[in-house]
Amino acid sequence: MTVHLSIVLFAPLATGLLGAVLPRGWARWSVLAGTLVVLGYAMVMLADFESGAGGLQYATDDEWIGELGIRYQLGVDGLNLFMVVLTALAWVPCTLWAAIREHDRAKLYFFNLALGETAVLGAFMAQDLALFIVFFDLMLVPFYFLIGGWGTGDRVRATTKFVIYTLSGSLLMLAAAIALGVLSVPDGGELSFSLAELERRSIPEGSQHWIVLLFALAFFVKAPLFPLHGWVPETYRSTPIPVLALLSAVLSKVGVYGFLRIVLPVMPEGSQHWQELFIVIAVFSILYGSIVAFSQDNIRLVIAYSSIAQLGFIVLGIFALDDKGAQGAVFQMLNHGLVVVPLFLIVGVVALRSGGSESLRELGGMAVRAPVLAALFLITSFATLAMPGSPNFVGELLVLFGAFEDKLVYGLVASAGVVLAAVYMIRLFQGVMHNRLGPRAESSDLGGLELAAVAPLVAVVVALGIYPQFVVERSERATLEQIAAAKQHAESRSGPELSVSK
Amino acid sequence: MIDLLQLAASEAKAPVIDYRELSPLLALAGGSVVVLMVGLLRSAFARRVLVPALSALTLLVAIGLTIWIWESGDREPIIEGALAVDALSLGVSMLIYVAGLVTIVLSLRALAPEVAGHGEYHSLLLGSILGMVVLAMAENLITLFIGLELLSIPLYVLCATELHRRTSLEAGLKYLVIGSVGSATLLYGLAMVYGAAGSMQFGEIGAALGGGGLSATDPLLLTGIALSATGLAFKSSVAPFHQWTPDVYEGAPTPITTFMAVATKAAAFAVFLRLFDQAFGLAQLEWGPALAVLATLTIVIGNVGAIAQRSLKRMLAWSSVAQAGYLLAGVVVGSELGVRATAFYLAVYLLMNVAAFAVVVARERVSERGDDLAAFEDLGTAQPWLAWPMTIAMLSLAGFPATAGFIGKFYLIDASVEGAYTWLGIAIVVGSVVSLVYYLRVVAVMWMGRYEIEMPGPPRRIVRRVAGTSPEADARAQPEVAAIAILFAAATIVFGIWPDPLFEAARDVGSALPNLR
Fold first, then answer.
1. Which of B118, B157, B154, B129 is nearest to B36 (CA)?
2. pLDDT (0 to 100) of residue A442
3. CA of residue B135 relative to chain centroid, distance
4. Cα dist from B38 to A116, B26, B48, B85, B256, whole Å
5. Which helix (H) or strand (E) holds B395?
6. Cβ(A291)–Cβ(A420) under 8 Å?
7. Does B426 contact A172 at a Cβ distance shorter than 8 Å?
8. Between 20 and 30 A from A189 (CA), which of A242, A421, B74, B142?
9. How far is CA B401 from the centre of its chain?
10. pLDDT at A501 over 60
11. ipTM of the complex, rounded to two decimals
12. B378 or B145: which leads in pLDDT
């Protein structure tokens, strides 16, 4: 069966535009239908995907801007299949969550949600570096409007900070990408940004160093990792809940995905050169995120800083340059996204029951009359802290195995993050659900549509905990191919040293 | 008169005049005179309707003639090597004509032509356009200077056409004084270049550098190059010769500001390209680094200067300084790709700035806060048909993808890297990051509700109602301004997704200058 990726890509945008011309009140259903179309297509892809086959499936390849060597090139392999699935899975409940509430200028709100999905899908499916950057930057536009237009508190300041932080990274990446394209042109060759072509061409190692660094800057800001997370507290505080769920679950993955899709295969020497630095940044993020998460009073920020730690794990897995580590990282990218969406939606539920308060000091005791809410919250909390039986356990374990293989010390330090995660997540769960009923809290269970938004994803998390092989099998081959060049390079570097020590 | 011409022809060898290739210039000159004459008629219909219509017709005829004579490749200059009618000059003159048409439409309900006289206003405008086209076509030092003066002198007057407003007069005077300093510097520089090269012709100067006995490090030549760069930098508001820009842009009537921002810049960069990449092309190793430093300085100063502005016209003035820095990067590299990228960006620059200025014109006429940021508060709810074009223009100026601005910057960075000026590409990028602060502020004010800006605002002023009844009626009373804004914003998006037509024109433009890298 053929799946046309262009239809998947532009279905949300089309429904967003349709919503803009339909009568008031219809926009939400139009956009929700668009997200369902994408979800349907993603499921078809998942069923149809040939896990044994290498290379790209459902590839689209047309010329877009010939003058600049930019191609409209889309494709799916085991690496981004689950990112597309994650995007599809995350957008449906968040759009549903938004659709059952009233908004000012609803048409614009839902148009932005739809544009956001198109941009994210584009970034995940792009097989041309310039196309990737186009979608990577385009993502910011809808999120800029969503946070600035419908956020709370000092939202304009927050959204401006968010955009400036992210775009300073990604514009430098743009310059680096153009340099990459130009420097890799062989004599008499044409400028090309196609990733497959860039992999074949070679770039001088000296240039690789600074180019990798600029790419990493963009991706670390997006992830976010310590010390480039300056935009996080304000943005997380001001962002509307469904948007925040998407921001944290999906947008943060685009950056780390970029490492696997672009940086490692195209510039293996440069990646290997900075391996140590990036691992240190990752480990710092794990420790910093975990410790700060423990001291936060705002429940959003607990999850925000826990995400910094989780993303640290993912980057650690990628730059361990080890098969197991990379597989764990890819699995963990999916897991974190799947867990964070229900977690943030539950935060939204809690805030609705507490008169808008998201402070741990004012909350508590909500589990009394809300057993379903409490159960779902408990499952997601356990998944976040990587309880055995949860998919996160498998993911983090693989990452740590990968790190132990070659970078034992860093692996040991990072393990502390697993322990700390248990501390802050249990504190969060207890603070909201147990203890005495908070001064502003009110205990009532999930409504029907709220349940419809939260429960399915929790079910997926549970299913993946039972059968993680489903993901690992399908993503294995593509993931190993992506890191092969850098891994080989790292081994050839460390080879002579090992022989000396022997 | 005819006898005299014959007399002259019998004694000296008269230049061969190619009327076909000269036709756009003749149309402009003729149109300018006719418009001036019609403006003298007493009937209000003639002055208010016929004059703008005839001016627009003149420009449309010029556009038609330009398309007729359009040819790519290196063309032999006409009239004894005075004017180069090639894709570079024709392409840039197209931009200038479009800018002229926009100015005429934006001036329809403006105060300036009422006060200064419709005939005079439009005739001066056409005269200035004529000067710009001559400047873009200039192939020797004399025509360069004539073109520059012909474009500047009408502009000095046009800046001051809102006679009753002191800032307008101030703008005219300031522009006159500073513009004259620039012209004088340029003239001095051109004289030195002539002294060093022994020729007025760009082609011959280039030939002298290329083995004709003129060294690229000749001190007289280098001084001449430096002084002419300074003179052109005054015109194209390249730092540190930009100080007049915010004041003049703010003081001048807004349609004229629009015209200056887009058309003057296009003409100045056309001559920058031709003089530096063609005549001085072989000395690029000498002037390249110096201009690259100027470009970086311009990017930094323009972007930092714009941050502190509340007035949209001043903000766009500073932003135009920054954009001049980006454009200069395409000149610095001295390659065909650089010429193409500059030409491409000039077109994109026209689209996004016209969209932005049209919205400023619309708001300024009806708002008590003039062109202050406060006049744009909640425009997204009140007048989305103005807020959208402004949003698109701002995002495009900042370089967001799916707008033409993104591709323009991509092209310029590409040219910089290809020309071994990677750091200049990085400077463009860093400038764009800084520019987000002020571009996004405009978007935030329009869409995200009341937004406190920690800068003192201007006092409220009394506005002359355009439609005379209510703000809502005022908003609907100037559909032509909104139409311009929407049209150019739409073009910004279309060319951001499908830029091929612009690329083809840019390729033609790039082929006009021979012997480039």
1. B118
2. 72
3. 12
4. 55, 18, 10, 30, 21
5. helix B384-398
6. yes
7. yes
8. B74
9. 24
10. no
11. 0.90
12. B145
